Description:
heterodimer, A: mainly alpha, globular, B: 356 residues, two-stranded antiparallel ribbon, 14 helices
Amino acid sequence: MDIFIQQLINGLTLGAVYAVVALGYTMVYGIIQLINFAHGEVVMIGAMVAFTVINALAPLGLPPLLVVLIGTACAIPVCILVGYAMERLAYRPLRHAPRLAPLITAIGVSIILQHLAMLVWSRNVLAFPQIIDIKLYNIAGATITNVQITIIVTCVAMMAGLALLVYRTRLGTAMRATAQNPHVAGLMGIDIDRVIAATFAIGAGLAAVAGVMVGSYYGIAQYTMGSILGLKAFSAAVLGGIGNVPGAMLGGVLMGLVEALGAGYIGTYTDLCKISGISEWLTQRCAADGGHFVLFGSNYQDVFAFVVLILVLVFRPSGILGERVGDRA
Amino acid sequence: MTVTARRKPARLWAALAIVAAALVVLPFAMSEIGTTWVRVTNLALLYVMLALGLNIVVGFAGLLDLGYIAFYAVGAYTYALLASPHFGLHLPFWVILPIGAAIAALFGVLLGAPTLKLRGDYLAIVTLGFGEIIRIFLNNLSRPINITNGPQGVWGIDPFRIDGLSFSGTQTILGLSFSGPIKYYYLLVVFVAVVIALTLRLQNSRIGRAWEAIREDEVAARAMGINTTNLKLLAYAMGATFGGVAGGVFSAIQGFISPESFVLVESIMVVSMVVLGGMGNVWGVVLGAILLSFVPEILRFSVGPVQQSLFGRTLIDPEVIRMLIYGFALVLVMLFRPAGLLPSAVRKRELAERSE
């Protein structure tokens, strides 16, 4: 089996999901310069709702694909509602407050959502129902599953749809205008409040689908699943240049690839036994440990993503595709 | 504060004396309710130190740092590794604390140097990543050479010891029984008082005013001849130093540390303390830290019994209610007081200008 191609496939799948979640962060940031810390929790809520619906429908004998689709269809409106509610209640009143105030309410909302989910779905790791039969396909010595193909195709389709929405519709134009200058956009007759609410709703809808995909891909769901996913996706959005829609897509895919390839290769390349000739002590250690003296194993996977992020930002302080941003903390 | 001091020195001194007396009596009153509360107070004091350290970076210099707990971790692990059976080293605490502070400061500069060009939220995510990197390293540096003992953590850490007087265990002095936590409490009160005095002096110093200038407008500050590079690095280093010292004390009090104590949520907690209290205002930050460390603990002990008395049984997991109330409290406080509970003078002015 070809490790490189295999990790490329895994990375693309993961990256596609990151990209979709990152879009939610980047759209909100682009319009109101807020890091919506609670966005990861919306993904989690999406996964949880789908979990409940799929579990309820699974024994009925419907076609598996239909069941998953119904699950997703139920998750989307719930998430949109959650997204809208948090904008309305926690962020809108603070639109003219000091920059860090909405950040703290975002943290508060995140805590609330997590623990509401814990109340409803318990604190246990839930086994996400695997009702779709997994089929394996061979590509150039690596395998790809039908679930992975579905995830990648769905994500690409959603990103294309979003790009159309942002660049080709009236709502998209209004969103971009609001992002550039909310005051002037308001003078031009754009209802800024509605545009911002719509942005939250769209982001939350994407997050719902991402939640279902993550759940079916890993086969588990838990009330804490949103935070680490959100963190990665947010990093991806920053990597691409936060506030920039194509940037989030690029950043997400890059993040996924870096993580997968990093996890696949870091152990091999930091195995000091390859150069065991240089020191007597190392040779002995290698002999004792069965020929391996791995400095950094694949448990450093998460470090990899962050190191790449930091390196990119050191050389391009506004991300890969980003423009210069304001500097108020 | 300074105005009152100039006008009514007598009243200020009286107030100070009352506060000091209250602080002296507090641990004994607390231990009447239960020794746990002395421990909770000690942790709250540690959080005050952390929040004041972070306030230098976020409140004074305006650099949002979401990975601050990393410095706490660096200080804690420095102490743990130099004073525990893990490496068989047992250095005294007055040797280790400065080492820990210095290493933490070094890490502060290490974080600061590559991020000097970053602004606003880009900085936030890099600091967050830095914090995570430190934690992941602590978690994994048990192989191939065991440095941090990985997720199991380091245990058997020495308490503070001055000659014969150890800070762990109970001692009777002048007919009063001083338990371990109470002794640490007095030590921490002294530490916190020193940190408060330092930050207050710092705020009104040349450096503090330069930080404020950088926070308000970096380009203008540089045009005025302020060396922004050095001053930003100094802010990181000073903030990190406080974190490092607090970490060392934490290590000694707990006697056991593991990477679990230094997760992202902790960083976010400290940021919330600073912002909720009123960033830039030393007293606001102290208030924020005390509130946010006590409220969850009070809820922990009250939510269960209250449910029992209201419904006769535990309906909902107390942990859930506790965190829900906490989350709602964060949101509500920020909604009603967007600049924090005790806003700094600058923030007040800004808000007033906006509302005109």
